[in-house]
Amino acid sequence: MGGDAWFRLGDRDLAVHIERSTRLDQGETLSKVTQDLCKAFGLDYCILPPTNDRIRTIVETNIGIMEFQEYFVRNRCEPVVTDLRYEGAKKARLLPDISSALLNPDLQSVIISPSNPFLSIAPILAIPDFQKQLANCRVPRVAVSPMVGARAFKGPTAKIMGELGYEISSFTVASYYSSNLIDGIIIDTGDADLVPRIEKLGIRTYVTDTLMKSFDEKKRLAAEAIQFAKSLGD
Questions:
Q1: Which of 199, 195, 184 has its CA nearest to residue 230?
Q2: How many CA atoms lie within 13 A of 73 on its CB side?
Q3: Do residue 211 and residue 111 come from a single domain?
Q4: Taking the model in full, what pTM does it have?
Q5: Range of 4's domain?
Q6: What digits encode the pLDDT tens for the residues 20-37?
Q7: How far apart are CA 138 and CA 102, in angstroms?
Q8: How far is it, in rounded angstroms, from Cα 206 to Cα 91?
Q9: Per-residue pLDDT tens for 217-232?
């Protein structure tokens, strides 16, 4: 149809994007659209965006400034990253449902998944109310490192770490979140030598096999994360 074809997605992915964009243009909130999509896909989980306000991840590189999708998809993460910023985050309002969940007396723990700290987690942490509530949260907060040695599970995490001048390791993940936001971190067995350095930050560590090659391994790691968080609250 003559449009830009660099955003390489399958038909069903494109259909979701068209449906979401159409409904957002009509004034619906992102959280409502997300909940409706979950129902349409038969998902029983409560999946929510951190805010209904717009936040844009901007990547500064050696060849210019670009939006996240341009960096990630169009340019295949090849440019050298020199800085990252999250436009709109400082003014974004935390979704009330998330605020309520963090204050819920039945809440047992908060677990940060092994996603890219810079591209996936940081835009959420950049919301002032979320970061404040997470810092003041009274339940154990645990992160799962996406690193195994100097390599990430997938994606450009290790590449970005090095380009921004960080040590490429789970130690950087722990120090990036800091003891202000997490109480513990799960790292791979191959990184056991990092335990003393991480625990000097005031962050407890749990060492296990974090590389998930099957659904059973994913369930096992999830169960261990929950148990580790529980042990921090005992």
A1: 184
A2: 10
A3: yes
A4: 0.91
A5: 1-47
A6: 999 999 999 999 999 999
A7: 9
A8: 36
A9: 999 999 999 999 999 9
**Is there a domain that residue 63 lies in?**
no
Domain count, the chain: 2
Same domain, 17 and 132: no
Same domain, 31 and 102: no
Distance CA 130, CA 189 (A): 31
Q: How far apart are the first and last CA of the chain?
A: 60
Q: Is residue 54 part of a domain?
A: no
CA dihedral 36, 123, 78, 80 (to 10 degrees): 170
Q: How many Å apart are CA 45 and CA 144, to the nearest integer?
A: 20
Report yes or no: 29 and 52 within 8 Å, Cβ to Cβ.
yes
Domain shared by 40 and 99, yes or no? no
Phi, psi at 176, each rounded to 5°: -65, -45
- 210 in the same domain as 132: yes
Where would I find the H helices in 51-150?
68-69, 96-103, 122-125, 128-136
Q: Which strands form 110-112's sheet, in the order they lie side by side?
A: 110-112, 141-144, 184-188, 204-208
**In this predicted model, what pLDDT tens digit does every residue of 199-214 receive, in sequence order?**
999 999 999 999 888 9
Average pLDDT over residues 64-80: 93
For residue 149, the domain's CATH number is: 3.40.50.10680
Q: Determine the average pLDDT of the residues in 122-149.
A: 95
